[in-house]
Design a protein that fits this description.
The chain has 8 helices and 2 strands, in the order ααβααβαααα. It is mainly alpha-helical. It folds into 2 domains: about 110 residues; about 150 residues, no CATH class.
């Protein structure tokens, strides 16, 4: 494993972000709700600044992709908590956000050349958006399964959000993520040649194969729900499978190439 160096400013910014995420979770019983909300909002802002710092440094890889996905999920949760204040998952998401930031300090990624093609930022943005939306769907599916288990034990669901609402939110994110993933694959196919020699995306390599398999899995999930009424455990398992395949498409492939094989890649 090869650990890439980061600048001093990025190091301190990342450590401050991770601390702002994790400290409230560790001291939840000794802090008021206003102080906790303030610290988590500060962590969210610092996280955004750390992502911008990485983009400005023209570096990207599996760890920044995970960090950006975590930030998008936290953004979705922050917005949803305004409409569903009874939803409770902030501590788990805050810890995951802090760990993602720390991982980025260890593996900040490889140099990027986003200016090689005008289509590359679009392809990149669509891919990250699909990651964030499907990750949000996975979080909601996890909340759904947790609430179902509590109901089987004749206990009050910990989130207080009705099961039908959680299920509806889960599949809304699946549908939105499916649209973004479809657009990502279409962009790679239509503009693959114009992305430049370095960015020839549409090759039948690990990233493409896993992305297509994930697309087929999510398509089967949406069709199965509409035509066969898939829901509950079956739907969640198919969602988890599709999310795992999508994770392997970019993050998994880059992890193997960057960390296990120690190769420096342009993107």
């Amino acid at each position: 494993m090869i650990l890439e160096p980061v600048s001093t400013a990025s190091l301190w910014l990342g450590l401050a972000t991770a601390t702002a995420y994790i400290a409230p979770a560790l001291a939840a019983g000794r802090l008021g709700s206003a102080a906790i909300r303030g610290m988590l909002f500060a962590a969210w802002v610092l996280h955004a600044l750390s992502l911008i710092s990485g983009i400005m440094a023209h570096r990207f890889g599996f760890a920044p992709a995970l960090s950006m996905t975590a930030w998008l999920v936290l953004t979705v949760y922050g917005v949803e908590s305004r409409f569903y204040p009874q939803m409770r998952a902030r501590w788990a998401l805050a810890v995951l956000g802090g760990l993602a930031v720390l991982l980025t300090l260890l593996a900040p990624g490889s140099p990027t050349r986003m200016d090689e093609s005008p289509w590359l930022p679009l392809h990149w943005a669509l891919g990250i958006a699909s990651y964030g939306l499907f990750a949000a769907a996975v979080v909601h599916a996890w909340l759904l399964r947790r609430a179902e288990r509590q109901m089987r034990k004749a206990a009050q669901p910990p989130d207080g959000v009705p099961l039908l609402t959680l299920e509806r939110l889960t599949f809304r994110f699946v549908q939105a993520g499916f649209v973004m993933l479809t657009a990502t694959l279409l962009a790679g196919w239509l503009f693959g040649e114009s992305l430049g020699s370095t960015w020839n995306y549409w090759k039948w390599e690990h990233k493409t194969v896993f992305s297509v398999l994930a697309w087929l899995t999510f398509a089967a999930l949406l069709i199965g729900r509409k035509r066969f009424g898939w829901r509950g455990r079956v739907a969640v398992r198919v969602l988890y499978l599709g999310a795992l395949l999508l994770l392997m498409a970019y993050v998994g492939s880059r992890f193997v190439l960057e960390v296990v094989l120690g190769r420096t890649l342009p993107f």
